[in-house]
């Protein structure tokens, strides 16, 4: 196995590979593009950090390349889609800096509470002042951790060690994880209203962008302390500046910014604010973290060489050709089922069950299960989840995954059912393949039969005359065309469920209008990427 290293990578990681007699390693730093292009075709693996761009031209020259190993979390410098098309596996090291990030969050908190930065500047300036730097203890305070993943979980543990009462909010982890950490799982609103300290540890997504803004800051306790060592943009920085100026927030400590390096006037004022402790995105910047990511990618390369499962692959490796031939239609089906049902679940995921009935149950359904699990989790977590690392991600989230098989099926020759269970909630969806096309045939306990489409609207309501007409009128008024409709009910004038296939998306205002007009008990617009 020929490996080229093109960026500075910790020797501790490289040494793991150099000890293996199967490895021939060349360390070539600072190569120009043309120089790298001229030699990359000789190598099976490239190890990089952020200094090398693994793009289409490089991959086209890399005729023997089998694996790109990014010694770090981000893969912005790697064209993952094109690598996948070329059959090249891309791996990274998403957890190597977990401890580093958690410790930095605590360092920020303690620095603010004990006025470390101010007192440091004062003493170095020649003054001996103590009274201006009276600080706060953590003991006895209520701390709220938003996001209880790898980093958030470690921060929660450390806060408990400082004798804080710890509340946590994370709708995407199982209750068991919070119980194991000894923290109380609550809603975001409860954290906003009750905590003396609030620290965020979520990814930056459309859901978490500006998650804490003017409204949330106004609802917090007077004198709250806020920490952000996760991602810039989770906390609205303009609202944060106003809350500091007003005195509602006692102070804050940020390591991350919506713009890096910061350049706007708002950010400059926030960074310069006397109540702020700030650092330039140093969460992963420790010697240990750099060693960890190097070791992690080295181990991934060894797993690949030993034909073992790769834990942190960004793209999906190939299955055995004969197995793929049997499973391909059902891989597509389970993706659609997962994409559909996960949008109906608003609580923590405790258990996911994949049930296979009919002839399909005679085969190894593991590829389908892992594919479906990856599709579910990709809607819930920041890291890229695929068929290689899906089970590992589920385990880390405390989610139980089960596979049930039965060759007996009365209605369909092959049927896949996905069941998701959370606190006080259970969702079920069943589907089959008809003439190569996915069909959804059951939702909860309603028998249905429809083809999933990109844009859909699902409603549950009390069955009575005129409801379907009201829905059609409202959608028509907003020029949203109904392509197909499927209705399910158990009895006359009982609860009914309707699923509409639409030519375009439904905005939130229209959804609320439909809800009000139909008195729907449940209404949800769906966007199925897998049905495009």
TrEMBL record:
MF (Gene Ontology): phosphoglycerate dehydrogenase activity
The enzyme's E.C. designation: 1.1.1.95
This protein's pathway: Amino-acid biosynthesis; L-serine biosynthesis; L-serine from 3-phospho-D-glycerate: step 1/3
InterPro entries, sorted: ACT_dom, D-isomer_2_OHA_DH_cat_dom, D-isomer_DH_CS, D-isomer_DH_CS1, D-isomer_DH_NAD-bd, PGDH, PGDH_ASB_dom
Top-level lineage group: Bacteria
Reactions the enzyme catalyzes: (2R)-3-phosphoglycerate + NAD(+) = 3-phosphooxypyruvate + NADH + H(+); (R)-2-hydroxyglutarate + NAD(+) = 2-oxoglutarate + NADH + H(+)
Keywords, sorted A to Z: Amino-acid biosynthesis, NAD, Oxidoreductase, Serine biosynthesis
Oxidoreductase as UniProt keyword: yes
PROSITE patterns recorded: ACT (PS51671), D_2_HYDROXYACID_DH_1 (PS00065), D_2_HYDROXYACID_DH_2 (PS00670), D_2_HYDROXYACID_DH_3 (PS00671)
Endpoints of the signal sequence: none
Enzyme class of the recorded protein, top EC level: oxidoreductase
ACT domain sequence ranges: 456-528
Regions annotated as coiled coil: none
Function text: Catalyzes the reversible oxidation of 3-phospho-D-glycerate to 3-phosphonooxypyruvate, the first step of the phosphorylated L-serine biosynthesis pathway. Also catalyzes the reversible oxidation of 2-hydroxyglutarate to 2-oxoglutarate.
Family stated for the protein in its record: Belongs to the D-isomer specific 2-hydroxyacid dehydrogenase family.
Name used for this protein in its record: D-3-phosphoglycerate dehydrogenase
Protein's gene: serA
